[in-house]
Amino acid sequence: MILMASNNHGDSEIFDNYQEYRYLLAVSTFTNLYTGGQVYRQIHELSTGNNIFRPTMAAVIDFLGDQVITYLLISSASTAIPLTDRMREGGDTVFTDSASLTIILSFFSFIFLALSAIISGYKLSSHT
């Protein structure tokens, strides 16, 4: 998220000029908020022994949240790839390298959240 937000190198190399990159940044921000909330919930439950949500409700929230975030991540990465490829045809710059790295990191986030979605799906099925 920080990498894309700071990807400003003058003239046409400002991430905010491209809606694909703004979408990637918005999804990255939303992903950070979601995972931060999940971490907070888990730490709270581990440290106090009290659940914020009933276990069944927590399983549903985990499953739905993981599914939505996972699809948003792959969607945002896939919209930014064609733009970055077109820009790289004219030559690699720091701007296109930073955009490519952001896309790669988004894809890695997708992989880990997809694994989390599988685990939360299993947990949901075992609660019902």
Percentage of β-strand residues = under 5%
| Main beta-sheet strand count, sense and barrel state | none
Structural class: mainly alpha
Query: What characteristic shape results from the CA principal axes?
Result: elongated
Number of helices: 4
In terms of quaternary structure, the protein is single chain
Mean pLDDT: 87
Q: State Rg.
A: 18 Å
Q: How many distinct folded domains?
A: 1
Order of helices and strands: HHHH
Give the terminus-to-terminus CA distance: 36 Å
Q: How helix-rich are the residues, as a percent range? A: over 70%
Tally the beta strands: 0
Low-confidence stretches: none
Quick overview of this protein structure:
With 128 residues, this protein is mainly α.
Structure description:
- This protein is mostly helical.
- It has one domain (2-6, 15-127).
- It is built from 4 helices and no strands.
- Helix 2 (19-48) packs antiparallel against helix 3 and helix 3 (55-89) runs antiparallel to helix 4.
- The N and C termini lie far apart (36 Å).
Please write out the topology.
Elements: H1 2-5, H2 19-48, H3 55-89, H4 94-127
Helix pairs in contact: 2-3, 3-4
Keywords summarizing the entry:
single chain, 128 residues, mainly alpha, 4 helices, elongated
